[in-house]
Amino acid sequence: MRRLIRADLRRILAKPGFYICPLISFALFIYGLFSSSIEYDSYYSNLDIQLAYIYPFLVLLPIFTCVYGDELRSGTMITAIGRGLSRTKVILAKFIDTVLLSLAFVLFFLLMDQITFDRFSVVLTKVQILRVFSAYAAAWLQILGFCTFAAIFVYLTWNSSVGLVAGLISIAFSKMILDWLQNRTHLPFYDVTFLGQADMARRQFDAGNMWMHHVFFVLLWYALFLTVSALIFNRKELDL
Amino acid sequence: MSEAIIELKDIKKQYGKHEVLKGVNMQINRGDIYGLIGRNGAGKTTIFKMILGLSEITDGTVSIAGSRSRSELYKNRSKVGFFVGSRFFNYLSARENLKYYATVKGIPHRQMKAEIDRVLEIVGLQNVKKPFKTFSLGMGQRLGIAGAILGNPEILILDEPTNGLDPQGIADVRHMVQRFREEFNMTVVVSSHILGELENTADRFGIINEGVVVKEITKADLAEKESAIEIAVDDLEKARKLLTEGGVKIMREVEERSTLEDYYFKLVGGGKE
Ligand SMILES: Nc1ncnc2c1ncn2[C@@H]1O[C@H](COP(=O)(O)OP(=O)(O)OP(=O)(O)O)[C@@H](O)[C@H]1O
Ligand SMILES: [Mg+2]
């Protein structure tokens, strides 16, 4: 499994197309550097929107085209399976690819923010730093949740675009719909999901309370999604 | 008794209601160049998929290198190199694609470059630098074979490696397959529907028709089965009678040595016009 992950990461990083999304955000960032200055409060209030909608989009796009799309198009998945790697491990390998790549993206975004702060000589207090950090960490957990959820559709339809669309739709609407359901019914529709649990982990962390168990629930959601993928994929006919 | 390196016992495969394999029994021995023969849709590729675990087996058992359990089977699959159509990343070059394969196969980083050079040299692609998407069909097939022999596997499975190749390419593949056995001690399983092609390459044949292996036969068997000379006689009827009475069974009347093709069509029916 480690070999597959290593091989995957190598071939993904060798693809120019993989860098389009980071380059776009980098261009925007450079533009930002030379336009208006920022201060912490406005930055922090904008951050939520960015983390909830823009960054997930920028991360999902390259991940679904490179981790899944190229793989399905080339049919190379059989290289590992034909050599005896179990399909469950293939799914796990793809998940770990996603974990590592999305982490790289999130760190990249974080770094750009840091540079922006430096550029405008904004000095953050320790509390502020921790808040930015927890916002990013929660967003990362949510992005991973979206990716893992959407991957089910890739295994189901054997088409990475379907997965990508499923992922983008859930990024755009799930928070809104679940919130609405929760407010209407007073049942924790939003709170029980990986989205809600990641939010809670962040809030509890910021408030200095116990937060680890919320992360644990997020992980349980991943496990659920991965199990569903495995059940689907294990029965899949690999056409030659 | 030769040692079975791949054994299929009563393999059945159903796609919905369509039964593609109806109990396939096959034994491939160490050191064989085993030719799997059958018309389009006979189930050759399906058999390979069963061996490689690319598709669920409806019923029956596969054993590779003496594996006795599922986990042993999975483990022993690492001894198999296979080509089932060229599967590569479009945007990567031959060398980069092979690097992906080599990494998945677990070839140590230190040896990777030398190993990739070696297999590219064998298939004659050592000087190609462009990305895979610009490859011709034949180049793709060659790269596929290179990928299959990376790491020098004990067992090599080639599904129609000569598909779409020109006569020179076909001859090249034939020489490669022989070299894989002679030089690298591989057991090679190769499928084709071009019978004449396999006849010159393989030394054992499995003939598959309508979902079962009808016959497994060696090249020597094929030669022994019938031998014929051309003689001219004055009385054909009398000659036939004498031969029959003398205990000689006349199987056919032909002027040439029987080919695999003749044998095949006799077995499964049909034939060339
Ligand atoms: N995924 C699938 N779903 C349904 N039927 C299938 C599937 N794959 C193969 N088949 C059927 O199985 C039969 C055997 O196919 P297979 O590909 O094994 O034949 P083959 O001997 O390799 O033929 P060819 O010489 O054309 O490659 C065919 O009738 C085919 O239609
Ligand atoms: Mg076939």
Question: How would you summarize what this structure contains?
Answer:
The complex is a heterodimer of chains A (240) and B (273). Chain A is mainly alpha-helical. Chain A contains 9 helices and no strands.
Report on the architecture of this protein.
The complex is a heterodimer of chains A (240) and B (273). Chain A is mainly α. Chain A has one domain. Chain A is built from 9 helices and no strands. Chain A has helices at 2-13, 20-34, 40-74, 77-81, 87-119, 126-157, 160-185, 194-206, 212-234. In chain A, helix 3 (40-74) runs parallel beside helix 6 (126-157). The radius of gyration of chain A is 19 Å and the shape is globular. In chain A, 36% of the residues are buried. Chain B is globular, with a radius of gyration of 21 Å. Helix content of chain B is 39%, strand content 23%. A 6-stranded mixed beta sheet of chain B has the order 5-6-7-3-8-9, sandwiched between helices. In chain B, strands 2-1-4 form a 3-stranded antiparallel beta sheet. The mean pLDDT of chain B is 87. With 273 residues, chain B is an alpha/beta fold. Chain B has helices at 44-52, 70-76, 94-105, 109-123, 137-149, 167-184, 195-201, 219-225, 236-245, 260-268; strands at 4-15, 18-29, 33-37, 59-64, 80-83, 155-159, 187-192, 204-209, 212-218. The A-B interface holds A 3-4, 6-7, 10-11, 14-17, 70, 73-76, 78-84, 86, 235, 237-238, 240 and B 15, 45, 48-49, 52-56, 73-78, 80, 82, 84-85, 87-92, 96, 99-101, 103-106, 147, 159. The structure holds adenosine-5'-triphosphate (ATP) and magnesium ion (MG). Residues 44-45, 159-160 of chain B line the site of magnesium ion (MG).
